[in-house]
User: What shape does this take?
Amino acid sequence: MRPLFRTCLLVSALTLPLAPGVVAQGAPDAEDGPGVQFNGYGRSYIQQTGLGGEVLDPDTLAVENIADGEFVLDLAVNAQPNSVTEVQAVIRMRNEFGGFFGAGATLEVRELWARGVIADVLRYRIGDMDMALTPYTLFLPDADAVVNAPELFRPQREAVYYDEFYTGFNTRRLQGAKVDFGLAFDRGLDAVDVQLFLARLRATDLLNVPTRFIGGGRAALVAGPFGSYGTMAKAGVNVAYTWDDLKSGEANTGIRNAVISLDGDLTILDQDAYDLHLVGESGWSLVRLKENTNDEEAEEAGEPVDEIFVEDTDTFIEIGLAGTLKDQHIGLSAMFVNVGPEFYSAAAQSKRIDYTRTKSTFNRVGADAIVRPVALFDITRDAALYTSRIGDNLMMYDPRYGNVLPFGRATPNRRGVRLGASYTPDNLPVDAALDFAALTEIRGEGTEELKNFILLRGEANVAVNEFFEWDRMIGITLGTQVENTSRSGEPAEEVDLSSVLFEAGASAEVYDRLDVLVGAKLRTSTGRDYLPQIENFNDIRDFFEPFVTDDQESLVGAGLRYRFRDGIALTVQYQHFSYGSDVNPDADYTLGQIFALYTMTF
Assistant: This one.
């Protein structure tokens, strides 16, 4: 076995660029009135990664060690020219370690927005904004291969999420404008809240790529309570419309994608010991690919100038019951879901990870320089794989990390039930959740036989120190995901794919603000499936060769973290990743990484 790597870290030098002595200047408060405030975010990151394993045996020329790092400082200037207006600009300064005379250094505007209130009624925001409506209209699905991430793996993941504007509330970062206002009523309806937005998703290249926009909004209504049972009604109308402006540049082909939904929450009972709700969402989608013929004579004559290549519509419904046993602190839900095969919602189905992108660490390995498949190691830390893009087609996915609902709850061609349970007691330092789904295809893919899907997800958090009333923090996190996909029929039709993901971690404060972190992520997958090749949004063109897997991954690590104060921390860790395949044992490899990451917010 070859040595994985040699490394030497000067942690003290790492912290110098971001000494925790920066304070806000000119920060306004309610009594001082308008002012200017400086705040921001910074990180310093250095790592060394080594490659080993069977994949290197026939390769005598491979680079086995990579060292890199960066220094990032985001300076936010927030100004309040008056009591109803606020503007902010974030300037990013970044430098790759090892740069010489400015090589690898960049300066860019990361964020720019203004917001305010008009006549104490209308709230507006212009520029960068975070938006989410519902899981079927405008939404960012949860990440692959994450159930309940151990504390050990969170610093790298949070750095990636920060760069990609993942706020943790399934919002998407857009650039445009939005307004919202509320209306109150004396009888009947209690209130109506309206939110409208318009954003540009991409600019034209003045040639073949048209400008793409998204617009829509939500109107939320609240009525009640009525009677002695505490009956209330909440409903919302949601619209998300994505379109290409074919009058921009020379492009003549563009998409139209409209999604309209109605969601509701009817409180059937609300008693001291329990409550019961009827909840759900239902809607419709239209997707169209058309060509503008640019026939001016036809346009002047009032004749159609567009030729429709693709036009599909479909519906979805999700409806069920949700309730709480208040004394036991238990939440329960049971939902029926039916998402049509042609349902398409670009702003809800676009994934966080683009599996077609080039990995930043050891993208190609072995004597034949084959592309290394995306692994747990990459998902936890590689910003090159992540995207905030809203696509115009169903993206590729890896069934080992999510085959039941690869595009979130808006995954098309699914019918079945979802069950959920949660436990969040007030008197115990424990919380837990369990979700189960049993789904089937509505329409077969390449056959009349239908796939069946089973999904089980569970997570738990335990604050051990609170059980024993210790002052120092000790926490345990657990998470697991089990998936199975099956299909009967002729031997060429048969599908049987199973995957198991397990996460466990612990963190303990061994000295004042000094934490020991340990964690592990394990995945195993066996069986085979057929992955469709998608064209025209969600139409199946063909199938790849059967996806066959019999492999396992393990990512384990340990480290120290020192918390200087809230928002400022330094962590030094070592993590070891191992990939093994029974189908192709010559492709087995290991990755070892030691890194130091210093982050601060001010």
Observations:
- Residues 154-163 form the longest helix (10 residues).
